[in-house]
Predict the structure.
Amino acid sequence: MNFPSWSRKRTAGLVAASVVAIALPALASHWGGGYKRPDAYVPIWYGSMLGEFQSAVSSAVNNSYNPTDLNMVATGSPAGAEIQYVHGYYGDTGWYGVTTCQAWNGVYCGYALVQLNRSYGPYTNAQKRHLACHETGHAVGLNHSPFSASCLGPGWSEGTNGHDRDAINSHY
């Protein structure tokens, strides 16, 4: 059966609008670009973190992530830790911080390494808190965010926003 050309265009337009309408909720989430933990209990180890950066990581954990369904707890050694934080002078790498999964089983990351690059410092305390919050977000499963009020978004925000917390709570 032949349909008039205006009918084919209208049908194509409706199909395109349906695809966009279906895709919009997926775009609203920034979950999945990081490394999901096996459960909400997340033992962490500060590794080489001393003083200034340990304070920034503690701030990120206590102010941005523990108010969610996550339970991030510092351990006294790397044994059993699911996230290890280290900092060092890694050189002109192009990154301020990086999170890598060291034990991926195809579903979740059993052990993530968060490295904060001191080569680009000195950092202000606010920048340290931003970096710690940003990389911790990746370590628990968040991707970059389009929202400037999020430490995973553009700019130097020091904490998570409601969108980040909702994404975490819906997955743990």
